[in-house]
Amino acid sequence: AIAGPASTLTREEIESAKADLAAALSADAGDGESARSLITLLDTQYRRAKTAAQPAQATALRQDTRAVIDALLAAAPDDAWGRVTLLEFEIEEAESLSGAARQSELDRLRGELDAFSGWLTENIGNVDPRVAQRFALLEGVLDPEANAARTVAVYEAATEAYNNQSGILLQLAAAYNRSGQYDKAVEALETLEAQERLAVSVDGIMRMNFKQQAPLLLAEFTLTEMATTEDIAEKRRMLELARSARDRSTAEIGEDSPSVSMLDGQLAVAEAELAGLENDTRAASEFFQRALSHFARYNEQTEYGNTNGLWREGRVATQLNKTGLARDRFQQMLQ
């Protein structure tokens, strides 16, 4: 990585890059790209200073970062990256407070989030739409009980402004799902799946990638929604919808992807639970065995490094009274 917590840049390289970027900003204080790069480098140094227990240096770097953000917004008040970065910065600062002071600051920032949400919804067609992803994270931190309502509005506007761009449709579907609008999430994913392939190009490759993700997400969302109904016939219908989406996905990406192993395990668990509701204990046990096999394969493919996979294998192992295996997987989650 060039910058960020995992950066391999040396201190000397970072200082040299910072000098170049500072020179660019002295010529044009509204140069958003240079400001973003400088902020990233400063954040890299800040994280390193915190890790090395150098509080004075960390404080100075935070002050430098705030100065860059303020200078950018003074020169370009409507710079979307600057505005979202300021919110991120102030949220992190608020988290260091306690008691009433912390709550008061978070309340103020929710007001700032509302204002930025309205502005971004109106202006998304004139800014880099990737800003919306960072906005979605901020809403999740500041107002999780809103169920992504602001994010949905931003992505709906972005979908219209960018003519159903594939990546935006995918993000819109995810936002709909987080907001509890399953039917709209499915509609967005089906629109994405139906888009024609583009000629071989960067845009064409990106669209193909997003189209391949769509049925996997549709299956995942459907299995989650399936748990919200008590109607066995409706559960069966949704299970078949999820399985159909899985088959469309593997027709494109094959059977060897870890994401397919994970989905196959989830489908088998859904089959097992449905069989249990239908009082078919033998079928339920067989499906749980299949689920265990799929989750075990997923964990092998991911080298036992994914806590979600470890938890799912451990949970199914518990269901099958394989207590030793379950204990091993749960312990691996803590390592």
Task: Summarize the structure in words.
- Helices cover 78% and strands 0% of the residues.
- By secondary structure, it is an all-alpha fold.
- The radius of gyration is 24 Å and the shape is globular.
- The two termini are 25 Å apart.
- 34% of the residues are buried.
Topology:
Elements: H1 11-27, H2 32-51, H3 55-75, H4 80-95, H5 99-123, H6 131-142, H7 149-161, H8 166-178, H9 182-194, H10 202-226, H11 232-253, H12 258-277, H13 281-301, H14 307-319, H15 323-333
Helix pairs in contact: 1-2, 2-3, 3-4, 4-5, 4-6, 5-6, 5-7, 6-7, 7-8, 8-9, 8-10, 9-10, 10-11, 10-12, 11-12, 12-13, 13-14, 14-15
- Average pLDDT rating: 94
Q: What are the low-pLDDT stretches, counting only 5+ consecutive residues below 50?
A: none
Q: How many beta-strand elements?
A: 0
Helix content range of the residues, please?
A: over 70%
Tally of individual helices:
15
Radius of gyration: 24 Å
- N to C succession of SSEs: HHHHHHHHHHHHHHH
How much strand content do the residues show? under 5%
The biggest sheet, with number of strands, parallel, antiparallel or mixed sense and barrel status, is: none
Structural class: mainly alpha
The span between the termini is 25 Å
* Spatial shape: globular
